[in-house]
Design a protein that fits this description.
heterodimer; A: Rna Polymerase Sigma Factor, Chain: A; 9 helices; about 0% strand; B: mainly alpha; elongated; binds zinc ion
């Protein structure tokens, strides 16, 4: 989980608490890109960098009270997620962060028979590898658009799991959701992207 | 035995090895008989790999100048506290 070029949390945390500038630079170099990536998923590109910077100040402020119940990386990302969420609530009161829990089905019910088996099953895709799919500029665009229209927490889940390769356990701590809700968020996000690819490929 | 709808609802859990054994057995049995769900699952796998390789998956780049600017900000914030 930890970054390859970073000292262990045990070495790093006391140095950060002692305001060691070299250690500051090390953690920022190791984690800032990832923090911006997560912030982007929740609040969008325009203010993601600002949110990540704000999170660093919050990290330093909270560090003396860090209880080590997770890795430093997970804990820092949780602060990013919380900073981003409160920004989002502040800026657009109408956006619901909990859209994940809405009961919309994974598959359009019109595609299923009354006995819950396929009536209109998935069609073959033209391409059968990621590279072949992504070779199409049009499809790259479809995927990007589908990602952009996901609810914030679904986008965060898919970013951390399928783009950054974090464990589900860490992701649920970072987003402050239960294990089962975290899995629902991830699966809904993946399914929406799958449907976007299918619309393009399955004809 | 799960329906096709059940298969689609929990397919991420199946791929991530997060189903209890009895549900996993149900999956195997269904998949052995249902070509549509086999395709659905293959396409989900392909979707996950494609997300990981898409341009959106690239971690944003951080320049040495940006790192330095953030470190300065951090130093100032701790000075204010003292
Ligand atoms: Zn089926």
């Amino acid at each position: 989980m930890a970054h390859p070029t970073l000292p262990s949390d045990d070495e790093l945390i006391p140095r950060l608490l002692a305001n060691d500038e070299t250690s500051y630079a090390q953690v920022v170099a190791a984690y800032h890109g990832l923090m911006v990536h997560l912030a982007r998923a929740i609040v969008g590109e325009a203010i993601a960098d600002e949110v990540a910077q704000e999170a660093w100040v919050a990290v330093l402020r909270a560090l003396p009270k860090f209880e080590r119940r997770s890795s430093l990386k997970t804990w820092i990302l949780r602060i990013v997620s919380n900073t981003a969420k409160s920004r989002l609530r502040h800026e657009s009161r109408t956006v619901s962060l909990d859209e994940s829990l809405e009961e919309s089905p994974i598959i359009d019910p019109a595609r299923l028979k009354p006995n819950a088996h396929w009536a209109s099953p998935p069609a073959m895709w033209h391409a059968d590898t990621p590279d072949a799919l992504l070779a199409s500029a049009e499809l790259r665009c479809c995927i990007s658009d589908a990602l952009a229209t996901l609810p914030p927490l679904q986008r965060a889940a898919v970013t951390l799991r399928d783009m950054q390769g974090l464990s589900m356990e860490a992701i649920c701590k970072i987003l402050e959701v239960s294990e089962s809700n975290g899995r629902v968020l991830l699966h809904r996000a993946r399914s929406r992207i799958q449907m976007a690819i299918e619309e393009h490929e399955g004809q | 035995m799960p329906s096709c709808k059940d298969i689609t609802e929990h397919s991420s859990d199946y791929l991530d090895h997060n189903l209890p054994w009895w549900k996993r057995m149900g999956y195997w049995l269904h998949l052995a008989m249902c070509v549509h769900c086999r395709r659905y699952l293959d396409q989900l796998k392909l979707t996950i790999d494609t997300i990981g390789k898409s341009p959106d998956a690239t971690t944003p780049n951080v320049s040495p100048e940006e790192i330095q600017a953030i470190v300065e900000k951090m130093k100032q914030s701790t000075k204010k506290q003292e």
